[in-house]
């Protein structure tokens, strides 16, 4: 029997993403807790977001890393598409900035190391995230950082370049705007490392190095990067400033943009990378375990304002099925919508990492691949090395 909504108990709503809502769930058989993101199919069609959801699923089904928010299950019903991912109860870094948390250099240093490992892994998988920012860094209960939200991520291979104007403007690298204006050579993995630099600066100072907002025209931003110089705090260590300068280098060819670059920094020269990868270093900021680090209004919205709340889904679907059976399908009011819904139903890829891990344990392998018959075996072989990526990177890093 394939996994479905009934295999989970809904506990509470905790957030809203760009294309869906998020709640805490418990899998009934194992009693394990997860975060479940659900996206209404009709809304995705109306907003032309189906392609983005499918791309995010395609990416998440193929990757797994200690500093990512990993996908465990994906499934669908008549109304929604579901992604069940790691549950991280420490809140996102945006929330903590809004709570006026003062992040120390030592704390930000560990975030930089953990995100460097995550971004280096993504680069090895040919993935540009394109939306690295405090909102998309979730903390676990111990305070370790995890990158989430692959909604606008893209895959580039064999020297390809990305060209789309994608991201959140205050965190987007200069070459993205240049490419959009001039139609030049595009951009690559370096853009994520610029975003990492912007985020690190913001965590340390409480504001970003450039005064950029979503309504700024692209033309003005291109000029801004060539005229405005970043001001660094005199209270920061020289080594931290030197590292930030290398991340915030306008020319991507001279920017730090991989783990090997980061490891040459004097600020990170003594980092025990193997310990970082194993989460053995104690974070400087540990979220308060006695509270849920999210906006409490999400739960109220779900219970009171949401027209199709999750806790009433079973009854609602049964009612819809009864209504559909009593109606002549040829009288459909919206044939186009129905065609789109049927296409989603047919093309959606079901994924079960738990099932895959169990089958791989029996054969002595470790893998991650979608449920697609014979195809899964090929995907599994390719993925075996991916899951060991962090340990191999860390073991080589520890020797430098």
TrEMBL record:
CDD domains: STKc_Yank1. Residues 8-268 form the Protein kinase domain. It catalyses: L-threonyl-[protein] + ATP = O-phospho-L-threonyl-[protein] + ADP + H(+); L-seryl-[protein] + ATP = O-phospho-L-seryl-[protein] + ADP + H(+). It comes from the Eukaryota. Residues 386-400 have a biased composition (Polar residues). Pfam families: Pkinase. It is an enzyme of class 2 (transferase). It is a lipid-anchor. Residues 311-320 have a biased composition (Basic residues). It is found in: Cell membrane. InterPro entries: Kinase-like_dom_sf, Prot_kinase_dom, Protein_kinase_ATP_BS, Ser/Thr_kinase_AS. Its main location: membrane. SUPFAM superfamilies: Protein kinase-like (PK-like). Gene3D superfamilies: Phosphorylase Kinase, domain 1, Transferase(Phosphotransferase) domain 1. GO terms for biological process: G protein-coupled receptor signaling pathway; regulation of signal transduction. ATP binds at residue 37. Its EC number is 2.7.11.1. Its cofactor is Mg(2+). One of its GO terms (cellular component) is plasma membrane. GO terms for molecular function: ATP binding; G protein-coupled receptor binding; G protein-coupled receptor kinase activity; metal ion binding. Signal peptide: none annotated. Belongs to the protein kinase superfamily. This is Serine/threonine-protein kinase 32A. It comes from Phasianus colchicus (Common pheasant). The gene is STK32C.
């Amino acid at each position: 029997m394939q996994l479905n909504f009934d295999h989970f108990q809904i506990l509470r709503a905790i957030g809203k993403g760009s294309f869906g809502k998020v709640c805490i769930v418990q899998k009934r058989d194992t009693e394990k807790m997860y975060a479940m993101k659900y996206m209404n199919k009709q809304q995705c069609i109306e907003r032309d977001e189906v392609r983005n959801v499918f791309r995010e699923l395609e990416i998440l089904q193929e990757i797994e890393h200690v500093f990512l928010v990993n996908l465990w299950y994906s499934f669908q019903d008549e109304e929604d598409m579901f992604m069940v991912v790691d549950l991280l109860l420490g809140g996102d870094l945006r929330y903590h900035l809004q709570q006026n948390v003062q992040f120390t250099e030592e704390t930000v240093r560990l975030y930089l190391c953990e995100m460097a490992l995550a971004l280096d892994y993504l680069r090895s998988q040919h993935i540009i995230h394109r939306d690295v920012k405090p909102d998309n860094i979730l903390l676990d209960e111990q305070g370790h950082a995890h990158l989430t939200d692959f909604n606008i991520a893209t895959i580039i291979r064999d020297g390809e370049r990305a060209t789309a104007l994608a991201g959140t403007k205050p965190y987007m690298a200069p070459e993205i705007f240049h490419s959009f204006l001039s139609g030049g050579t595009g951009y690559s993995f370096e853009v994520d490392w610029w975003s990492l630099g912007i985020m690190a600066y913001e965590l340390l100072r409480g504001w970003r190095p450039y005064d950029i907002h979503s309504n700024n025209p692209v033309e003005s931003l291109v000029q801004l990067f060539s005229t405005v110089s970043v001001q660094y705090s005199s209270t920061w260590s020289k080594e931290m400033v030197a590292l930030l300068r290398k991340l915030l280098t306008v020319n991507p060819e001279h920017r730090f943009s991989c783990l090997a670059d980061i490891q040459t920094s004097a600020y990170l020269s003594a980092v025990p990378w193997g310990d970082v990868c194993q989460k053995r270093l104690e974070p400087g900021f540990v979220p308060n375990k006695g509270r849920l680090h999210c906006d409490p209004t999400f739960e109220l919205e779900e219970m009171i304002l949401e027209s199709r709340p999750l806790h009433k889904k079973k009854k609602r679907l049964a009612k819809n099925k009864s209504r559909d059976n009593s109606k002549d399908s040829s009288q459909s009011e919206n044939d186009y919508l129905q065609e789109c819904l049927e296409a989603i139903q047919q093309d959606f890829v079901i994924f079960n990492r738990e099932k895959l891990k169990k089958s791989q344990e029996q054969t002595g392998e470790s893998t991650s691949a979608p449920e697609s018959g014979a195809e899964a075996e090929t995907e599994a072989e390719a993925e075996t090395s991916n899951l060991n990526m962090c340990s191999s990177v860390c073991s080589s890093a520890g020797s430098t």
